Amino acid sequence: QLQLVESGGGLVQPGGSLRLSCAASGFSLDYYVIGWFRQAPGKEREGVSYISSGGGSKDYTDSVKGRFTISRDNAKNTVYLQMNSLKPEDTAVYYCAAKGSGDSWYPLWPEWYDYWGQGTQVTVSS
Fold this sequence. Notes:
By secondary structure, the chain is mainly beta. It is built from no helices and 11 strands. The strands form 2 sheets. Strands 2, 4, 5, 6, 9, 10 and 11 form a 7-stranded mixed sheet that branches.
């Protein structure tokens, strides 16, 4: 069974850091684009970042550029999202998602992805 499991969320003060992990089981992440998304209460799910299967292509939504870093370790079948200088507006449930091969390229659109994790809560508050 294909499964993605996020971990690493929690409560952190403004300016703090967290590292989220997205671990896959039942399949290898080697050939998948991985995206990180977030959803705050009452808001739509938002694309935060993505990384290509080989790691050579990555991007971020403007609001997190310079603060978040996405990386992958295919040997561990895990993708990471390092989040620094966290702000209260980063508070949300964070999800990772996986997309297999295809002809289209919409890596920050949630509808583009095939598999989703259950999410991990990130709360930034003093």
